[in-house]
Sequence to fold (258 residues):
Amino acid sequence: MTTAPSDHRAQITAITSGKGGVGKTFVSANLAAALARQGERVLVLDADLGLANLDVVLNLFPKVTLHDVFTGKNSLEDAILPAPGGFSVLLAGSGMVEYSRLTPEVRDQLTEVIHRVRPRFDRILLDTGAGISDVVLYTVSLADEVLVVATPEPTSLTDAYATIKVLATTQGRRDIQLLVNQVSRTGEGRTIRGQLQQVVDRYVTPGLSEPVKLAFVGELPVDPNVREAVKRRQLLLECFPGSPAAQAVVAVATRLAT
Fold:
């Protein structure tokens, strides 16, 4: 792998959600492929350290994971793998109960890994766990920007609001990106962004020095090709590149890259 100049620093984007099952890992993987197609050197780091599943989505069977790097069993170089779609991945081991809470060791190891890989890429996507645990919040704190993935379901929106509130009040986040997945009609995502912004304006911004702004980066439609791609353990952009959801992912990547 070629090393970029020492003053180069990748843009770090944390992709997170208030609840599980909203397609966060699917978004991370396909967004990485779309950004790679635009010429970016992209790394996806599976930061859901205890319940990792990026390897499943990409049909990878890693012999070396972040766990091996953290324990000193293998080098970081051994753990960075090429993924379908032209990007790189750092995969976590699944079912590692020791990573379910933020210990000083986990915090220091995660920070060190990100510090070491940052000069080598143009963009690093942190595929975080869901919710607002201390592990998730610390992972997000390492990012330059945050992309919250939500669906139109009331429970998802409630949890997305809770995540936005915590990020605004504990990390000082004032600009948070929003992607709405599984919309049933065009424009639904932008409407949801408006509704969430109203709630944030009413209940979160008062008492803060600056208002919290939700930047709408796009919506992904309900698309049967998504389920099929996930079942095949393939990237949507590779097996159904012309599908509505794939085209929507490319549009989001274009927006993020500009």
